[in-house]
Amino acid sequence: MAAIHVLNGPNLNLLGTREPGIYGSLTLGDVERMVRERAAGSGTGIVFRQSNHEGELVSWIHEAGAAGAGIVLNAGAYTHTSVALRDAIAGAGALCVEVHLSNVHAREHFRHTSLIAPVCVGVICGFGAQSYLLGLDALLPILAARKT
Ligand code: DQA
């Protein structure tokens, strides 16, 4: 099975110290370790990346799509603003799950809108680092079924 690309957007490199009351105290490195542990044994490799730059995220989505890989995407604030990310997901034909650590619907109004949700297979938010694991769990059987 193709690897799953776990892509992280702006400011997620600050996890651990960034607004811990909202995002918790785990670092992005901790999240990566948890994702790799969960994927171990599934036969699926993990590509885990973070960028503060929209265009770099666009290129990584294209890369995942070309490889036939699934994507677990925490696009951070670009979730709410980026037509470019939405078009990248749609254009690359990549199976993508949108994830967030926080429950964006319980927060400011501007976080209630996701420009990428309509081109994702589903959305998971509010479970802290577990959101990533739930995203992975959701993708694995769909990717396995696609392969057969
Ligand atoms: C976030 C939620 C976004 O609204 C915010 O801009 C982030 C993190 C989350 O994981 O909860 O950067 O994506």
Short description:
The protein is α/β, with parallel strands linked by helices. It contains five helices and five strands, in the order βααβαβαββα. 39% of the residues lie in helices and 16% in strands.
Pattern of helices and strands: EHHEHEHEEH
Low-confidence stretches: none
Can you list the ligands bound to this structure? 1,3,4-trihydroxy-5-OXO-cyclohexanecarboxylic acid
Major β-sheet, in short?
5 strands, parallel
- SS field, number of helical segments: 5
First-last Cα distance: 10 Å
Strand segment count: 5
- Structural class, please? alpha/beta
Give the amount of beta strand, in percent: 15-25%
Rg on CA atoms, Å: 14 Å
Biggest sheet strand line-up: 2-1-3-4-5
* Net shape: globular
Question: What is the helix fraction of residues, given as a range?
Answer: 25-40%
Mean pLDDT: 96
Structural write-up:
With 148 residues, the protein is α/β, with parallel strands linked by helices. Helix content is 39%, strand content 16%. A 5-stranded parallel sheet has the order 2-1-3-4-5, sandwiched between helices. The longest helix has 18 residues. The relative contact order is 0.20. The structure holds 1,3,4-trihydroxy-5-OXO-cyclohexanecarboxylic acid.
Which features would summarize this protein structure in a list?
globular; binds 1,3,4-trihydroxy-5-OXO-cyclohexanecarboxylic acid; single chain; alpha/beta; 5-stranded parallel β-sheet; 148 residues
